[in-house]
Amino acid sequence: MSAEIRGLAMDKKSRDELIVKYCPFVKNIVLRMAAKFPIDRADIDDLVNVGIIGLMGAVEKYDAKRNVQFETFAYLRIKGAVLDELRQRDWAPRSARSKDSHIEKALSELQKELGRQPEEEEIAGYMGVSIEEYHELLGDARGVSLLSAEDLPPDYLEKHSSAEALESLQNDNPLRNLLGGELMAGLKKSIDALPEKERLVLSLYYYEELTMKEVGRVMELTESRVCQLHAQAVLRLRSLVKDYR
């Protein structure tokens, strides 16, 4: 834990110095989110400012007695502030969410019909669009997430305090805490069933923590193609793990 935040009481000068010190941390978080979500580059500075407000809140609310590192606590506050701002702006319009659901439905139906993972051409044909139009739909779906608050057990927030959730991020696998054993096993099985390129995209992006551009360089693909493969992989997983929820 940083020495300057060990104490619970700080004067205004110390707080200001701490906020300035962690401003690059805020920008890094926002830039990583911008690589994942369809965020306009022109909005980056605004979102950094929103993240700094989240950082200020973290400085004010942080309690060292909870034995959670400040960086972990600040990360969640910053990311939460940015996500709240994006929700208020409705960054994922209804039309985009509708496209996500149509692709997911097509994947689910084809998987049942074919007994295997469908190829892109088969998905496009099922949806009645050209492969180019299908790729455009995947581009619109680049911000789709595998899990949402709706996927949490109904009583999760009642059983686990914010402090416990934060501590779990430090000491355990947070995904394991959120998912039941059956769903976790189903998710692993579903990932193994993905096409090789999509598995590699997920591995490089989530485990190696490369950006989409860096993943593209490794795989010798354009950044937009990597985004398409990422969106398609996530939508495949959503359709596959539904039976385990």
Word description of this protein:
With 245 residues, the chain is mainly alpha-helical. It folds into two domains: 3-89, Orthogonal Bundle (Rna Polymerase Sigma Factor, Chain: A), CATH 1.10.1740.10; 94-244, Butyryl-CoA Dehydrogenase, subunit A, domain 3 (Up-down Bundle). The protein has 14 helices and no strands. The chain starts with 11 loop residues before the first helix and ends with a helix.
Ordered list of secondary-structure elements with their pairings:
Blueprint (H helix, E strand, L loop, with lengths): L11 H10 L1 H14 L7 H18 L8 H20 L4 H21 L5 H8 L3 H10 L15 H4 L2 H10 L2 H5 L2 H12 L3 H12 L4 H8 L3 H19 L4
Keywords:
single chain, 245 residues, mainly alpha, Rna Polymerase Sigma Factor, Chain: A, Butyryl-CoA Dehydrogenase, subunit A, domain 3
| Number of DSSP E strands | 0
Strand and helix order: HHHHHHHHHHHHHH
Overall form = elongated
CATH class of the largest domain: Mainly Alpha
> Describe the biggest sheet?
none
What is the CATH architecture descriptor of the largest domain? Up-down Bundle
Short characterization:
With 245 residues, the chain is mostly helical.
